[in-house]
Design goal:
With about 240 residues, the protein is α+β, with helices and mostly antiparallel strands. It has helices spanning about 5-10, 15-25, 115-120, 140-150, 190-195, 225-235, and strands spanning about 25-30, 30-35, 45-50, 50-55, 60-65, 95, 105-110, 130-135, 150-155, 155, 160-170, 175-180, 200-210, 210, 220-225. The longest helix is centred in the C-terminal third of the chain and has 12 residues, at about 225-235.
Length: about 240
Amino acid sequence: MRINKYLAHAGIASRRKAEELIKSGQVQVNGKMMTDLAYQVKAGDRVEVDGISAYSEEPVYFLFNKPRGVISSVSDEKGRKTVMDYFHGVKERIYPVGRLDWDTSGLLLMTNDGEFANLMTHPRHEVEKVYVAKVEGQANKENLRPLTHGVRLDGRKTKPATYSILKTDGVKKTSVVSLVIHEGRNHQVKKMFEAVGLPVQKLSRVQYGPLDLAGVAPGEYRKLSKKEVSQLVNMAKND
């Protein structure tokens, strides 16, 4: 396996970033600095990055239905529950692809493939994602229309989104809205709804590209098929 791919599969960095590590002299193979970008890692080779051992596992990909109140992180210094608490039977060193807020539930991808994770989260390659939000206020065409043109958040305008009003409650003055976005900025969906006067009470990601949560209960996960992984990669590259 070519060394940059090896490092990507080890979860160190994307292939491009791995090449930068090699060029900067941070990668050693069998105790010697590696400068050959085309080097093929062989069985028994000891690969290190800045003196820390890196080993490549077979890439694995999971779809996880993250419950609310769970941190999208491998560990938490405050001792709070993380997504890793649900993957005790997985031996590979997996981690979340992107993140969902602590109080946001729904579809989260997990992998040990650094290149795949980078492709899914890179701003140029954002895959379509669908969220369902319960918001304060009465959602209607007038107050949601700005989302279809893009709203300015933190000095930058969002890409146009599409929406569907699923339910309104005139008594409780709440609404349930489905929102489709192609980005993954920090707290983006919550900020978008807040920008149009509809603060989010509850949020869930229900779809990621061609994937949905059918058959996967909160706190459960399943492996992605090769076909599903290929679909995600192709969608990102053709975006």
